[in-house]
Structures are given as C-alpha cells and as structure tokens.
Design goal:
Layout: H1 2-14, H2 19-28, H3 35-42, H4 46-49, H5 57-70, H6 78-99, H7 104-111, H8 115-119, H9 123-145
Helix pairs in contact: 1-2, 1-9, 2-3, 2-5, 2-9, 5-6, 5-9, 6-9
Length: 147
C-alpha cells in the first residue's frame, strides 16, 4: 500500500507538479479534497516555500497530509494540536536523518553540483524526486503506525 502512495506522488511530480503538490495530491482524495483544491492549497509551498529555498516542499506537502489525518478542528483542543505537532517533528527528524537537513537550499547544495543544474531544473531528477518519494513513504508510515 505504501508503494501506491509513493508511485502516485512520483507520477504527479514527474507530470510537473511541485514537490509539495505531488505529496499532498497522493493522499488528498483520502480526505475528500478534490484535486483542484489540493493543487491550489499546496502550489506555493514548492521550492522550499515559494522558491525561498527554506523548508523542503515535499515535507511541507507531507505536513499538510499529517494535518488532514491528525489535525485539530477546535481551537482549544490542545491535546490534538500538540499531538499533530509532534508528528510533524517526527517526520522532520526522519527526513533529517536521511538527508542531513530539511532545508531546501541545504539539500540542493549537498546533492546538486552547480547552480546551473538548478537553473536548468536538473535538481528535480538529481534529488527532489527522491525526496518526494521518501516524504510520501514517511508520511504513510506515520499514519499507519498511529491508526
């Protein structure tokens, strides 16, 4: 089952969707969110938050999935809110163990040889595609382990 979500995320990414969109889209139908809404909600998180190269977009897409699965709906429900935050930190830690960082710019610097490769969007195949697949797998595992 995990492979199904990874494959879906990679297919979206390979079709040209941002890393954040690819991860959210792989799971969004499970939560009754139509594709158009999922695409729009996650569209500005790619490239490390609007190409600011901050928090990895694949992870922010996965964080959105965690919110859909575990997030709170009542403002004073601190138990649910804090539990969901803990799952975000867990996912972030797991990704950091894999890549040494969860910051887009640092991941690119570590895995991509030149700024030319980034300008030519080669980073998508060099590292971003792998992070998308890993983010989908990690968020799936966290959801499955907490059911």
């Amino acid at each position: 089952m995990k492979e199904t979500y990874v494959k879906k995320a990679l297919n979206y990414f390979d079709s040209g969707y941002a890393c954040s969109q690819a991860v959210l889209l792989a799971f969004s139908s499970n939560y009754g969110i139509d594709d158009e809404t999922a695409k729009k909600i996650s569209s500005t998180f790619g490239g490390g938050m609007g190409r600011l190269r901050q928090k990895c977009g694949a992870l922010t897409g996965a964080f959105m999935v965690l919110g859909l699965e575990f997030g709170n709906t009542e403002p004073l429900d601190m138990e649910t809110k804090l539990s969901a935050y803990a799952k975000v930190r867990e996912l972030d830690k797991l990704a950091e163990e894999i890549y040494g960082t969860t910051q887009c710019a640092e991941i690119l610097k570590k895995y991509v040889k030149s700024t030319d490769e980034v300008e030519q969007r080669k980073h998508h195949q060099i590292i971003c595609r792998k992070v998308v697949g890993d983010a989908a797998a990690l968020v799936y595992s966290i959801i499955k382990d907490n059911k």
